[in-house]
Amino acid sequence: MGRANAIMAGMAKPFSHAELKLLANYIASLPGDLKTVPESRFR
């Protein structure tokens, strides 16, 4: 999953680990029904 997926790899590759965490936190803060599930390997 994640970076092993060709499409996601292309989207995520330009970003650092810290940037991806910031982006995920921002998306999680948006109003709506979208939910994020923390995974220990990304902490």
Outline the low-pLDDT stretches: none
Rg to the nearest angstrom? Answer: 11 Å
Report helical residue fraction.
40-55%
How many structural domains in the coordinates? 1
- Beta content: under 5%
List strands and helices in order, with pairings.
Blueprint: H1 6-12, H2 17-29
What does this structure look like?
The chain has 43 residues and is mainly α. The protein has one domain. The chain is built from two helices and no strands. It has helices at 6-12, 17-29. The longest helix is centred in the middle third of the chain and has 13 residues, at 17-29. The mean pLDDT is 78.
Question: Which short descriptors sum up this protein?
Answer:
single chain; 43 residues; mainly alpha; 2 helices; 47% helix; 0% strand; globular
In brief, what are we looking at here?
The protein is mainly α. The protein has helices spanning 6-12, 17-29.
